[in-house]
Write a structure and sequence with these properties.
Blueprint (H helix, E strand, L loop, with lengths): L31 E4 L6 E5 L2 E8 L2 E7 L7 H12 L4 E3 L17 E7 L8
Antiparallel strand pairs: 1-2, 2-3, 3-4, 4-6, 5-6
Length: 123
């Protein structure tokens, strides 16, 4: 599958390939279980993490959060490949200081955005 994110009707297709790179020795991949979304996002449970998938402005957006800590790198990259498949390019964007948005209630949320067109060249 070149582009795994599909319609949210009835279930999002998950890429079942091997997640690239190494993992921390203690990491065990939990199932990514779809739950009822809000109509704008597909929602998933991934262990203790909440994952939201949406199509925003022509690009896929993945949000992963944990209630008590930042999601681990293994959690972030596993969710990225399961939902985004092997052929898309995603980035975590850290904007300039004046445009940085964060509130204490969302302190443990990581955002991944699909790079499109020329943005993805060379990655």
């Amino acid at each position: 599958m070149a582009r795994v994110p599909g319609t949210f009707n009835p279930k999002t297709k998950l890429w079942e390939g091997e997640i690239p790179g190494t993992h921390e020795p203690s990491f065990v991949e939990p199932p990514l279980r779809e739950r009822e979304g809000d109509g704008l996002h597909a929602a998933f449970d991934f262990g203790e993490c909440l994952v939201l998938l949406s199509l925003d402005g022509g690009r896929w957006h993945i949000s992963i959060s944990h209630p008590h800590r930042h999601p681990s790198w293994d959690e972030i990259k596993t969710v990225r490949y399961r939902l985004g498949g092997p052929d898309l390019v995603f980035a975590m964007v850290l904007p300039e200081v004046d445009r940085y948005v964060n509130v204490p209630e969302q302190d443990h949320v990581m955002q991944l955005w699909q790079l499109v067109g020329g943005e993805a060249e060379g990655w």
